[in-house]
Write a structure and sequence with these properties.
There is one protein chain. By secondary structure, the protein is mainly α. It has one domain (4-303): ABC transporter involved in vitamin B12 uptake, BtuC, CATH 1.10.3470. 80% of the residues lie in helices and 1% in strands. Helix 2 packs parallel to helix 7.
Length: 308
Amino acid sequence: MNDLAPNRWWAALWGAVLLGLAVLPFVANDYLVGIGLSVLMWLALTQSWCVLSKLTGYVSLGHVVFYGLGATLVVVTWQKLPLWVSVPLAGVVAAAFAALVGRPVLRVRGPYFVILTFGLAELVKFSIMAIDSAAGTASRILFGTPDLVVIYFAMLALALAAVALLTVVSGSRFGHGLRSLRENEEAAETLGVPVLRYKLLAFVLSAAIPGMVGGVMALRSTYFVPGQVFDPMISVTVIAMALLGGGDNARGPLLGVLFLALLSELLWVQAPLLYMIFLGAILIVFVLLVPDGLLGLWARRRRAGAPP
């Protein structure tokens, strides 16, 4: 009975979050719907990042490159392709790019992988900016974009897809193989785990959803500038949310996103001049005192007999 209690608690939390997000556009104003959209965006990005980085330990600072590529494709094909084609195509292009660069990128580990993924994202960003500048299209205005509610429910679908992807991968044999790489890659290879193939597949899977997320969010802003959709802070924020949440399943990112996204909104409204100071202090406290994140903190409290 005790083993079922945490599962029921998590089921109740997921149900409450999903129900709240599903009904939000019908009961709230545009400002609150915008906050909900932001939460869904970060949830989709963080869950997809965890497919590679949390399960394998390969911390990527280049997750934004998939987001930016997807946004760029949707903007370039705006009013040339229907959205039901261009948004999935953005995911395909992002995944194809991951497959193309994955083999050389995934041959390095540790801080070298972190630096390489950051450099790759910057290379793609400045390459696109150079192409746009040469073509005289450094920025674009999108006319006739879908209503906010349409964008919101498209993002809700992507967030649910990201949660489902991480949940399935995390509980599968493939997911356990990825965890073995995180623990000891050499030992895993000795035991017969196809290391490079597993890493490459995880890299490709983690790229598809952010590509589609970027495409949808490009329609939300209506004014497209490559430098914004390839902003490194997107990757940094995703990592912060994943670390704050803890764990290597869908539960951790949910907690991290809800905590940081809502706290950021509160700090921005209440103390805009001190926003980054407060946020940085909170991250430092978590890294030093709660290294296993909110999920680990909840697990410790439960083992100690305290209510969740």
